């Protein structure tokens, strides 16, 4: 067996170690099951050395005994002070590297001597040299230093053939880098890089912290900024809230007994919406996009030259990041490899290649389809009231398991029922996707339009999709479970394909082949979907109609609803056709 070479992502906020074993890339977990090591080093109460989580935990209370973000100082001729002693940045980094080496050795049950370590593309020679030295101090022969965007590209495209241009957007805790990478067969080259090494998720936390501080000040007239302990709790709460908002449209921030005022406890209880949060961080996201354009022009390319966008760094889980990049490039960013781990995986792939291992692509369980629901909206033809605009909730290629929630609003005053339809597919018109489930939530409060309903989709590794809808104000909830959601799509797809082929052969063919249960089910399904869609569309056009048409329309809508309820699909079809004529000329 070839000698093992480990791959290390030595990050500003977190560091990881990965290896290639029997051709498969694995990020190594430590004794406590963690893949990510916070890049913190400290001296504990009894003088013992602390690395990772324990060092991070003491940081706020004992900053004089703790070092964070040492990566920012690499290559500088300075000493940092920790518990009264002085250390070079190389030495502090070496403590992190030594810990990762030990994690790998525990896992492999044999000594490790060699490593590939990643650095930002903008690192100077001095910074790269300092990283090598840190490796040496830790007892590692650094066989290669590679650029982080190169590593990310390798993780995604290890066995790529032909040429691709890739934008690597890396937004971590404290740094932002964007690189344009060209990959051609085995040659990966960074064409241009840009960024801001003082911008990242910590700034997003700070915005939420400020929001909380202002809230407490506004409500209780107290300035909590003075107390380190209180601010430590607020910081943690803000970060938790931020992560929550990546998956949910609202979060609650609750901290009991945060502080005392005149002997009485003050509790923090606040709701934050993704919408408010996105407004807080908009200036930062704008700044990253400006950097993207600078990197593109540095590479003499334009947005349309980019084949893929890779998301790296924990902060790219913020949905607005992917949305803005999609709007800018028209390319859906890749999110199938964990953005926190993909640089370490790429380092391991490079290490494996050097060691002469044959490396296969990174294996991850992802959903091959997008899942979502429908809402009223424009699908690009100028009709703002089309009732079946597809709203993706879980996107294709999301790693499993995944749970996402989105907010919706009722459309009419006094609306007591919402119908939730669940679709699989990618088309903006939900009716061109496959409907895989539906249910009603009844008994909503009698309030004006705009009643908030959250819809949550949970998809597990076995393809079981759990869908729930909840009236936010009351907690009224209804849910369904769709078993085998991933395979069902394929069945549905087969039905659609069968119908298409039948259509190609013309109706004559129907005489030769007896209609199967599945065929007739598909047709009934289409009649139902069409009937329902048209009834909803007609409903939205009632105001536009003449009195005479309105009476006919209401009558036909009723016939469709009765037919659907009684499963009389012939009646639904007849009424749908008649209604289609009226709707057609009203809508024209
Ligand atoms: P990194 O430096 O790549 O390890 O990124 C760490 C940053 O990612 C921190 O600021 C985290 O708060 C942030 N982060 C991690 N998970 C999420 C999430 N689900 N949503 C938003 N930010 C996240």
Automatic annotation (TrEMBL):
InterPro entries: ATPase_NBD, Heat_shock_70_CS, HSP70_peptide-bd_sf, Hsp_70_fam. It comes from the Bacteria. The keyword Ribosomal protein does not apply. GO terms for molecular function: ATP binding; ATP-dependent protein folding chaperone. Keywords: ATP-binding, Chaperone, Nucleotide-binding. The keyword Chaperone applies. Belongs to the heat shock protein 70 family. This is Heat-shock protein Hsp70. It comes from Candidatus Methylumidiphilus alinenensis.
